[in-house]
Design goal:
Elements lengths: L1 H23 L23 H13 L3 H5 L2 E11 L4 E6 H14 L2 E14 L3 E15 L2 E14 L8 E9 L1
Parallel strand pairs: 1-6
Antiparallel strand pairs: 1-2, 3-4, 4-5, 5-6
């Protein structure tokens, strides 16, 4: 009887030891989170550079929420219709519908912001003219490349607020 009891205790001890070993170990198939990586790749839109970084993010990830947060309530987009020979403008709601259509129909979007050609203003209003390259991949055999300049006016109510695009004149060619 004593021998049987010793075997049972040894078995219980062995099971407890094995169970404890598994519980105390990290699961190599489910590594912990990398705490050194920033929580978000969105930047602080309280800077002009942050606004342009968030614009790039919105296009790269086709994120209409982020894109909408870039535009002021009275936003106006203007481009030159070279076929008809005049400028075409639209409001924020039309811009959001148009951009949503682009995001939904493109497989990949890549915007590269190049040099700032002109920047002027103060702490509440800035005018920035900047060159860009936009590659729109609808499918592998339908890729559109646009090069041009974005002439944008950004505003904010106070220096603690984020910048919003109020006017964007697209000078693509």
């Amino acid at each position: 009887m004593q021998k049987k009891r010793t075997k049972i205790l040894a078995a219980v001890f062995f099971v407890a030891l094995i169970t404890g070993s598994f519980i105390s170990c990290d699961n190599i198939f489910a590594p912990g989170l990398d705490e050194t990586t920033p929580a978000s790749i969105l930047t602080d839109q309280k800077t002009i550079d942050g606004l342009f970084q968030n614009f790039k993010y919105a296009y790269t990830f086709k994120d209409t929420t982020v894109y909408g947060n870039l535009l002021g309530e009275d936003f106006v987009f203007t481009y030159r219709d070279y076929v008809s020979g005049f400028d075409v403008s639209w409001d924020r709601a039309t811009e959001m519908r148009t951009t949503n259509g682009l995001f939904n129909n493109a497989q990949k979007l890549e915007v590269v912001w190049n040099n700032i050609i002109f920047q002027g203003g103060d702490s509440l209003i800035q005018n920035v003219k900047r060159s860009f390259n936009l590659t729109i991949t609808f499918n592998p055999s339908d890729i559109v490349r646009l090069n041009g300049f974005a002439d944008m006016t950004m505003t904010r109510n106070a220096t603690a607020d984020v910048w919003k695009i109020m006017r964007w004149r697209d000078e693509s060619f």
